[in-house]
Amino acid sequence: MIVAGDSASRTKTFSDEDVRSFANISGDNNPIHLDDEYAAGTQFGQRLVHGILTSGLISAVLGTQLPGPGSVYIKQTINFRAPVYIGDTITATVTAKKIREDKPIATFETVCKNEAGKVVINGEAVLLLPTE
Amino acid sequence: MIVAGDSASRTKTFSDEDVRSFANISGDNNPIHLDDEYAAGTQFGQRLVHGILTSGLISAVLGTQLPGPGSVYIKQTINFRAPVYIGDTITATVTAKKIREDKPIATFETVCKNEAGKVVINGEAVLLLPTE
After folding, report:
1. A82, B49 in Cβ contact below 8 A?
2. Which residue of chain A has the CA closest to B14?
3. Does a structural domain hold residue A89?
4. Are A122 and A54 in contact (CB under 8 A)?
5. Residue B126 near chain A (CB below 8 Å)
6. What's the mean pLDDT in A84-108?
7. Which domain holds residue B111?
């Protein structure tokens, strides 16, 4: 039984191999993720982890920890607040905000921070909760 | 120069290997994605492609086609409307809806459909456009 305020988190360091693997399976081979020389000439100065790959860490917490297996993703909003560079260590935290009384549906605040504590992604997720 | 109505799309068939690879790099090893026996006992009856992996196809169109390299992701909303099964062929389409006049920021409608034409994901993306 989930109550408002329940929270779970997970931390991962995103490697060059992760980024190349995600480029391969998603088809997103934008050079900002893959090409050092191109990235050096952008406002970011170096290659970035795909935003959707970073947000996969939120999905991992939701799908395996809170609410966990049996839940069904209904909606996710993702605000990309700051760049994530190759090698950054990201912590995704999900916190239950609202649990509907009429249906097993809950809204979670979803945040990713880098190791400096800076918010790189925030937003909300809505999930159908597992029912036994 | 992007104008409202501009559209781009991309199609991909999501394989078991894609799903296992995404589970590995995201850490989302929810059994609904990986375990045939578990999945058979759920409302879906079979394993699902991770929703965030499917939405990576939207990110691929935005990052490589429209608006393409040099654009910066500001926001993505994702409504998960129907399940995506292993082996489904998904087409992601992005369509420019609003281009701001004061800043190089555009809003795109983002939709994924399966091969039967059913909407599996819809939502909106906001991006900072490349400026020369």
Report:
1. no
2. A25
3. yes
4. no
5. no
6. 97
7. 7-14+51-128
Convert the pLDDT of each residue in A42-82 to its tens digit.
999 999 999 999 999 999 999 999 999 989 999 999 999 99
Distances (CA, A) of A4 to A48, A77, A94: 34, 19, 11
- Average pLDDT score over chain B: 96
Question: In this complex, do B75 and A79 lie within 8 Å of one another by their Cβ atoms?
Answer: yes
Q: Whole-model pTM above 0.90? A: yes
Q: Write out chain B residues lying below 8 Å of A26, CB-based.
A: 53, 56-57, 59-60
CATH of the domain at B83: 3.10.129.10
- Confidence band, pLDDT 50/70/90 cuts, at residue B128: very high
Q: How many independent structural domains does chain B possess?
A: 1
Instruction: Examine residue B78 and state whether it is found in any structural domain, yes or no.
Output: yes
Q: Does A12 touch chain B (CB under 8 A)?
A: yes
Is residue A2 in some structural domain?
no
For residue A78, the chain B residues in CB contact (below 8 A) are 75-78
The 10 Å CB-count burial string (b at 16+, else e) for A110-128 is bbbbbeeeeebbbbbbbbb
Can you say how many angstroms the Cα of residue A6 is from the centroid of all Cα atoms in its chain?
Answer: 18
Q: Tell me if A35 is assigned to some domain.
A: no
Over residues A102-120, the pLDDT tens digits come to 999 999 999 999 999 999 9
